[in-house]
Amino acid sequence: MEDPSLFSALVLGLIEGLTEFIPVSSTAHVLLASHFLGFKSPGNTFAVLVQLGAILAILLVYFRKLLDIALTLPTSARSRWFVLSILIGFLPAAVIGAIAHDFIKTVLFETPVLICYVLIGGGIILLAVDKLKLQPRYFDVMNYPPSLAFKIGLCQCLAMVPGTSRSGATIVGALLMGADKRSAAEFSFFLAMPTMVGAFTLDLIKNRKDLSFDDVTVIGVGFIAAFISGLIVVRSLLAFVSRRGYAPFAWWRIIIGIAGLAGLYYYP
């Protein structure tokens, strides 16, 4: 990294954890904040590797449920059905992400104006979907059929364009296909686990030669900050969504997108 800053890493880690699991695009927030902080990392590796903190946060929150699923896997058709649905939902992002990785990192991640416009557009879509009078048919993530999981997984691929939001794409897709708001958010949590681990591993492999001991220190600071802030968000998000819906996140996206465009105009 060029002139790494532990303070910047701390700020970016907090941003990552606070935004990873809500539909506002953590990648967009981290990339825009990095731009204005003057924080550089080879291939924007920091933005992906620091996600490990958020991954561990969600694993900790759902540890008991994940352990129960693992222990009952040999005997419970319900547990096997759930695991199959998650794997099927993960498949599209695994394939497309591996194929398009270099284009995403070298082109899309390097276009902050595009990120701002996508933030605004996604916010408008999220507002529209939140106001729809949808009739949910699925209320329990353990009962999502594999066909629904696959369609949600296809929606997740839209998040390869920074600013779209992985959680936003999966949640909106799930809502439009019959999931209720709470289970849509929870399924997005579970789908995030293999997706983020896969992205982390792929990025680490591709950029291992560019990383130094100093990078490990900076990434470690970001990791701890992302873990703590991610833990807070995961523990409170489902209850918040059940009460307030997704409109607050939609307006936040629009505000940040407009502010980002203004900032890029004066500080390109």
TrEMBL record:
<keyword id="KW-0961">Cell wall biogenesis/degradation</keyword>
<keyword id="KW-0378">Hydrolase</keyword>
<comment type="function">
    <text>Catalyzes the dephosphorylation of undecaprenyl diphosphate (UPP). Confers resistance to bacitracin.</text>
</comment>
<feature type="transmembrane region" description="Helical">
    <location>
        <begin position="43"/>
        <end position="62"/>
    </location>
</feature>
<feature type="transmembrane region" description="Helical">
    <location>
        <begin position="217"/>
        <end position="238"/>
    </location>
</feature>
<protein>
    <recommendedName>
        <fullName>Undecaprenyl-diphosphatase</fullName>
        <ecNumber>3.6.1.27</ecNumber>
    </recommendedName>
</protein>
<keyword id="KW-0812">Transmembrane</keyword>
<keyword id="KW-1003">Cell membrane</keyword>
<feature type="transmembrane region" description="Helical">
    <location>
        <begin position="107"/>
        <end position="129"/>
    </location>
</feature>
<comment type="similarity">
    <text>Belongs to the UppP family.</text>
</comment>
<feature type="transmembrane region" description="Helical">
    <location>
        <begin position="82"/>
        <end position="101"/>
    </location>
</feature>
<dbReference type="Pfam" id="PF02673">
    <property type="entry name" value="BacA"/>
</dbReference>
<dbReference type="GO" id="GO:0050380">
    <property type="term" value="F:undecaprenyl-diphosphatase activity"/>
</dbReference>
<keyword id="KW-1133">Transmembrane helix</keyword>
<feature type="transmembrane region" description="Helical">
    <location>
        <begin position="187"/>
        <end position="205"/>
    </location>
</feature>
<feature type="transmembrane region" description="Helical">
    <location>
        <begin position="250"/>
        <end position="267"/>
    </location>
</feature>
<keyword id="KW-0573">Peptidoglycan synthesis</keyword>
<keyword id="KW-0046">Antibiotic resistance</keyword>
<dbReference type="InterPro" id="IPR003824">
    <property type="entry name" value="UppP"/>
</dbReference>
<keyword id="KW-0472">Membrane</keyword>
<keyword id="KW-0133">Cell shape</keyword>
